[in-house]
Amino acid sequence: MATYDAATEQSASASAAQGSASSEFKSALGDPRVVDLNGDGNRPEGVVTTVEELEASKKGRFAYFKTRDFYIVLVLGQILALCITSTNTFSSLLAAQGTSIPAFQTFFNYVLLNIVYTCFTLYRYGFQRWYRMLLKDGWKYIILSFLDVQGNYFTVLAYRYTTILSAQLINFFAIVTVVIVSFVFLHVRYHVTQVAGILICIGGVGILFGSDHITGSSDSADPISKGNQVKGDLFALLGAACYGLSNVAEEFLVSKRPLYEVVGQLAFWGMIWNGAQAGIFDRKSFQTATWNSKVGGYLTGYTLILAMFYSLAPLMFRLASAAFFNVSLLTGNFWGVCIGVKVFHLHIHWMYPIAFVCILGGLLVYFVGRKVLGEATKPWLGKNQEQGVAGLGTARRKVIKGDTVV
After folding, report:
1. pLDDT beyond 60 at 186
2. Of 63, 160, 203, 401, whose CA is between 20 and 30 Å from 269?
């Protein structure tokens, strides 16, 4: 997935800017920095509009609802929820087959992403520039990939001891982690409607778990949950904490750097972390695992869907935020049961549709009072997002090109 990237510095003088507007416009797209508004009130070079002007184009508490970005974010959130629910389902199916290889299971995902995005980064940058990027920013991606690998590892490990329904609890602690870290380190300030929306969504999930308790869907009769339930929940919570930290870190990085660079580096270092971890912790599990055509099919499905999830998630971080990303995944509980009806022969209780509507209502409340750009404007990027990259889905791209997504 290509974004515009910092290729050259803008060096045109003011007179040249007036004489060649189109060439300056292209230069602005190539430079990840837009000079902030000048003190004299003149429009910065390469800027078609400003954040203030864009947000003044539509007014009212429901201004964001009148933009196509809102519907893109809403649909994208449900696609991501379906992706994560599908990977959870494949993890449960693998565990049911006697194949629980938490680190090795995710290794192929990093390999696939590395082949696609790192190769594209090398094509765009060239080896020398890629190597310089590695020396300058590699440590950031090493930390990001470590958190991501541990999130995947402990989440998949939890399926040795818990059911697909219980494992959905992972989203709760991830939301708490994201909100706290974003508030403290990225200076994100949440509106009362955002907090209310999150609480409504959590209430909807509470209805889901209440119905599970009533119907006994998550008791120990499930063969996957015969292990230590408490241990499985702790692994899920640890995975959620790592996911929350990695989500915030990735939102920060994709707002400043091209998407293909971030995903490529995440996959590059993640492949190394994951490979080492698989060699250390999964050797015994690998030897005792069941290997047949079903397991091969489940691993293939898991890898392809997880790769799609990793490719779409950065776009959500740009258009919205890590907080809304995790809130959107709460509907995965509903989709998980829908899939479970067919795969695990579960039954949908009458409270499930109510819970789903409640979660969707929370997602709508979350954006009440938001302006035209929603959460695309990041507080750490400056007044006109001048410190950000003009990539797909970013507010800076709108500042340069006007009201556009792509």
Report:
1. yes
2. 160
Q: Rounded distance, CA 191 to CA 110, Å? A: 36
Please give the structure tokens belonging to residue 259: 């998407």
Taking only Cα atoms into account, the Rg of the chain, rounded to an integer number of angstroms, comes to 22
Give Cα separations from 404 to 29, 146, 372 (angstroms).
Answer: 14, 34, 12
DSSP string, 68-97: HHHHHHHHHHHHHHHHHHHHHHHHHHHHHT
Amino acid letter, 141: Y
Query: Cα 89 to the chain's mean position, in Å?
Result: 19
- Lookup: tokens for 122: 């090398």
141, two tokens: 């991606």
Report which residue type is found at 107.
F
Residue 33 has pLDDT above 60, yes or no: no
Q: What is the DSSP string of 1-24?
A: -------S-----HHHHHH-HHHH
Tens of pLDDT, residue by residue over 66-93, are: 899 999 999 999 999 999 889 888 888 8
> What's the start-to-end Cα distance of the chain, in Å?
11
Q: Is 35 helix (H, G, I), strand (E, B) or coil?
A: coil
CA atoms within 13 A on the CB side of 22: 0
Distances (CA, A) of 284 to 153, 203, 289, 298: 16, 41, 8, 20
CA angle 245, 250, 253 (to 5 degrees): 130
Q: Is the separation of the CB atoms in 248 and 186 below 8 Å?
A: yes
Between the CA atoms of 279, 283, 286 and 288, what dihedral angle is there, to the nearest 10 degrees? 180
Q: pLDDT tens digits, residue range 329-386?
A: 888 777 777 776 777 666 667 777 888 889 889 999 999 988 888 999 999 999 889 9
Handedness of CA 72, 250, 159, 102 (dihedral sign): positive
pTM: 0.81
Residue 198 parent element (H or E): helix 192-215
